[in-house]
């Protein structure tokens, strides 16, 4: 598909993966309303229809609305698809099958007056460990959350603001190791090669926060945030964001997102479902990259960013197991084949019986199954490893105990560990039971949809003598069904991040400690900047002037840059309080081709006059596809927190193969610990010069303690 924005994904009970995207011309010509894809392996995707069509959609939709940003969940045996409307509001559709037909439930968040002071779009659901359902939503610039009813069909709880930041949106919550992680995107999603989208995360002990970043910044603080999960890295993909998460059969997590190819970032023209023509629509294909959890925090590919070229694929085939869609070959036992439209083939058993695999597993392994109980069923179990009747490890959904129960039998001795299931747990609908064994450590979890929302987890150390090899299978006390039973070697976690760039020796000829008094020397002045030296610093009041598209009125200080890779750094103290005041670093070809990293003061949308202190990484240059190329585009990307004193860095590399400046940003609030952010690329027509700026709105003062330029020993 040429484009598939805002993707979300689920594994259906038929064993296939399903993806859902924003209304877009996925074939490059005509729009599809909430298109659906299906895949056997998360790599090869086939179009599976649209949730709605122009002739068949809810009659209450406002004319011309374009449904956006779907989210898919499985709740009590039913698929819940929430989506946003471009005119505002969040709606719900449900179906017994992942591709419909869909039943409309109308708006569950109104277009206005929802209690969240922001755009009422970009929603995602989450089910907590106690069975409570939550909905998260919000865009530009606040994310909110609230409880839903038990059926997950309406919002019932008070609305809580949980995060705010410039252009913050796309909240998605998962639970891991008793912590809640709120993923979100900030900066611009959809401006072609100038899209600054970046995925970030905060962590909490509660589903409604407070969420904090790795450096301890509260997501409600009025500053840009660290906790970068995914950012552009200069490899031809820009604006990676609006994520969901999927887990493969080995237990490896994958970030599902969209990104924009900078070489072909936009469609020329497409037709909407309503017959209107749209132009310059960003091309945002579906992307999937490995998500690592390192020191308790998620990051894509250990921090390497979006991939390009061939990569190891998700594990989507079991070494032992099956979906039973083609029969029960490879299994031994009395359980019978059955079928329904959602699951296709599955097994059904009665009494105290078991079904075992012919093949065996050993070592570190992930074993999973979808299980449900019949009306007279008291427990359904997954054999994690069964050597024989006296030596086995079994995970039970136990209705009588109301718990996930893990038993380990070793030569007549049984060890039992359990975790309560929610009082609302529906034993009659499918639930995934997944067991991961690494050495003698076993973790078993129960969820409805494998989307990072376990409702019960047991973590235990296996006793001596526990079987390390044997069959897998299912077992029951009373009536039960089983589907998608299989095992694969457990993934190997990545435990170390990609190293940060390393700076070499300082280059004095390209640096300035700002000693002396009066006007700075060794700099080229553009439009007569009012900067002076005082007490070992460069002091420069902001001015009512711009460096934006055709408004090139701001003053600049410039000096030559060294050849080859280099890094430039400054220590900036900034007392701005008004919207759009900014000061910082500049890499400059001319007034219409530059990259800058600033401490910027930006208004908070619907924030009652509040402003945000942001590390803003921007660029200006020609928009690809224009003839002749003209400087008509300007874009931000946001990095880590900004403080009264903030250290700023730009890391420069000339990409000779593509003829581009590749520039990466970093910032620090103590001069020691650096937050490395994303990379902007800009076609090169000549060398850049190093610059400083202090501009946009008068009334603030920028104090630059130094400007230092360094060699770069690793990028």
From TrEMBL:
UniProt cross-references to CDD domains, sorted A to Z: GH43_ABN-like
Against Gene3D superfamilies, the record matches this protein to: 2.60.120.200, Exo-inulinase, domain 1, Glycosyl hydrolase domain, family 43
Q: Name one Pfam family in it.
A: Glyco_hydro_43
Which keywords belong to this entry? Glycosidase, Hydrolase
Q: Please indicate which superkingdom the organism of origin belongs to.
A: Bacteria
Per UniProt, residues of the Beta-xylosidase C-terminal Concanavalin A-like domain are: 511-660
Among PANTHER family, the record links this protein to: ARABINAN ENDO-1,5-ALPHA-L-ARABINOSIDASE, ARABINAN ENDO-1,5-ALPHA-L-ARABINOSIDASE A-RELATED
Protein's UniProt name: Beta-xylosidase C-terminal Concanavalin A-like domain-containing protein
């Amino acid at each position: 598909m040429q484009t598939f924005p805002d993707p979300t994904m689920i594994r259906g009970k038929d064993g296939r993966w399903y993806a859902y995207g924003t209304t877009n011309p996925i074939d490059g010509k005509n729009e599809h309303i909430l298109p659906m894809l299906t895949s056997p392996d998360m790599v090869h995707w086939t179009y599976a229809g649209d949730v709605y069509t122009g002739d068949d959609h809810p009659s209450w939709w406002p004319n011309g609305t374009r449904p956006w940003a779907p989210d898919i969940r499985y709740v009590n045996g039913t698929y819940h698809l929430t989506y946003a409307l471009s005119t505002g509001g969040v709606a719900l559709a449900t179906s017994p099958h992942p591709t419909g037909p869909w039943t409309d439930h109308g708006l569950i968040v109104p277009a206005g007056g929802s209690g969240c002071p922001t755009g009422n779009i970009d929603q995602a659901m989450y089910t907590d460990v106690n069975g409570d359902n939550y909905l998260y939503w919000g865009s530009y610039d606040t994310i909110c959350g609230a409880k839903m009813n038990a059926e997950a069909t309406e919002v019932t709880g008070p609305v809580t603001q949980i995060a705010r930041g410039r252009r913050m949106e796309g909240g998605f919550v998962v639970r891991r190791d008793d912590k809640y992680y709120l993923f979100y995107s900030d900066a611009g999603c959809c401006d072609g090669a100038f899209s600054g989208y970046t995925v970030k995360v905060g962590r909490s002990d509660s589903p409604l926060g407070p969420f904090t970043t790795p450096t301890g910044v509260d997501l409600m603080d009025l500053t840009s945030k660290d906790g970068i999960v995914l950012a552009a890295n200069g490899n031809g993909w820009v604006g990676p964001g609006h994520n969901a998460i999927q887990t493969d059969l080995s237990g490896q997590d994958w970030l599902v997102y969209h990104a924009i190819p900078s070489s072909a970032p936009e469609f020329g023209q497409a037709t909407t479902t309503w017959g209107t023509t749209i132009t310059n629509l960003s091309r945002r294909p579906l992307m999937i990259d490995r998500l690592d959890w390192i020191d308790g925090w998620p990051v894509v590919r250990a921090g390497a960013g979006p991939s390009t070229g061939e990569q190891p694929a998700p594990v989507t085939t079991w070494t032992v197991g099956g979906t039973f869609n083609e029969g029960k070959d490879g299994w031994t036992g009395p359980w019978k084949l059955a079928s329904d439209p959602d699951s296709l083939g599955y097994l059904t058993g009665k009494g105290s019986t078991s079904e075992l695999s012919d093949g065996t597993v050993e070592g570190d392994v992930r074993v999973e199954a979808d299980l449900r109980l019949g009306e007279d069923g008291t427990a359904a179990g997954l054999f994690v490893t069964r050597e024989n009747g006296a030596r086995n490890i079994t995970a039970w959904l136990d209705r009588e105990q109301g718990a996930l129960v893990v038993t380990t039998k070793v030569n007549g001795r049984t060890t039992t560990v359990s975790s309560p299931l929610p009082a609302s747990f529906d034993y009659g609908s499918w639930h995934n039971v997944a067991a991961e064994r690494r050495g003698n450590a076993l973790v078993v979890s129960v969820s409805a949809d494998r989307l990072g929302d376990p409702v019960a987890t047991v973590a235990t150390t296996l006793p001596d003598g526990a079987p390390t090899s044997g069959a897998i299978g299912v077992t029951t006390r009373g009536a039960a069904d089983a589907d998608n039973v299989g095992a694969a070697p457990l993934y190997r976690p990545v435990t170390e991040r990609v190293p940060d760039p390393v700076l070499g020796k300082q280059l004095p000829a390209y640096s300035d400690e700002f000693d002396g008094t009066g006007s700075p020397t060794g700099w080229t002045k553009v439009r007569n900047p009012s900067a002076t030296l005082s007490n070992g610093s460069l002091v420069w009041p902001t001015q009512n002037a711009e460096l934006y598209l055709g408004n090139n009125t701001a003053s600049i200080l410039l000096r030559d840059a060294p050849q080859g890779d280099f890094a430039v750094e400054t220590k900036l103290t900034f007392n701005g309080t008004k919207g759009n005041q900014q000061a910082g670093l500049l890499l400059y070809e001319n007034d219409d081709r530059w990259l800058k990293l600033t401490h910027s003061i930006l208004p908070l949308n619907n924030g009652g006059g509040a402003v945000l202190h942001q590390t803003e990484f921007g660029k200006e240059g020609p928009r690809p596809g224009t003839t002749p190329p003209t400087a008509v585009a300007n874009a931000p990307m946001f990095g880590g927190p900004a403080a009264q004193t903030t250290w700023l860095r730009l890391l420069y590399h000339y990409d000779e193969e593509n003829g581009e400046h590749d520039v990466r940003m970093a910032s620090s609030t103590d001069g020691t610990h650096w937050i490395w952010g994303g990379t902007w690329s800009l076609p090169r027509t000549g060398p850049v010069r190093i610059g400083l700026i202090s501009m946009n709105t008068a009334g603030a003062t920028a104090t630059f303690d130094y400007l230092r330029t360094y060699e770069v020993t690793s990028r």
